[in-house]
Write a structure and sequence with these properties.
Number of helices: 10
CATH architecture: 3-Layer(aba) Sandwich
CATH superfamily: 5'-nuclease
Strand order of the largest sheet: 1-2
Number of strands: 4
CATH topology: Rossmann fold
Structural class: mainly alpha
Largest sheet: 2 strands, parallel
CATH class: Alpha Beta
Radius of gyration: 15 Å
Length: about 160
């Protein structure tokens, strides 16, 4: 989410995923709030969308808490909570963290790496390749994201 906020492209997620609800676990909300407090102004848009009800602030169930506790400590709290929610709700996780993507793949949790989401944006004609390229540059500049195979994202 922070990546799309950095690229000023959060609305594209709503276009891509349509009616699906985008859930934000408590630990991710906390990370976003802390980021804003540290001066990451682009994250204010995430806070605004939560407050407006466009992004759903998810409350953890007892089952989610137990599941998250059982996940590897090498994953961050937000990642563990997001995975736990996806396991319970059958949702899909969006992540730019290779550890998360690999964990999900090996445990049957549906997960879209950032590179796949970016590719889907232009393949489904939600936006253009040019816009995706601009988004990638902003993500690199603002969030420090490194795309290992940027050409693969944009290759026809």
């Amino acid at each position: 989410m922070a990546s799309f906020a950095a690229a000023k492209s959060l609305p594209l997620l709503f276009e891509l995923f349509g009616e699906e609800t985008i859930l934000v676990p408590p630990a991710v909300q906390e990370e976003i709030t802390q980021g804003v407090e540290r001066g990451k102004e682009h994250l204010r848009e995430v806070v605004r969308l939560i407050e407006a009800g466009k992004l759903t602030a998810e409350t953890l169930t007892a089952e989610d808490i137990e599941t998250a506790r059982g996940l590897p400590g090498s994953l961050g709290p937000g990642e563990r909570q997001a995975i736990a929610i996806c396991i319970r709700a059958g949702g899909r996780l969006l992540s730019n963290d290779k550890r998360v993507v690999n964990f999900c793949a090996s445990h049957g949790v549906k997960c879209y790496p950032l590179s796949v989401v970016l590719r889907l944006l232009w393949e489904t004609q939600v936006t253009s390749k040019t816009k995706v390229k601009t988004m990638m540059r902003r993500m690199q500049t603002v969030e420090g994201i490194v795309f290992k195979e940027p050409k693969a994202i944009l290759k026809s």
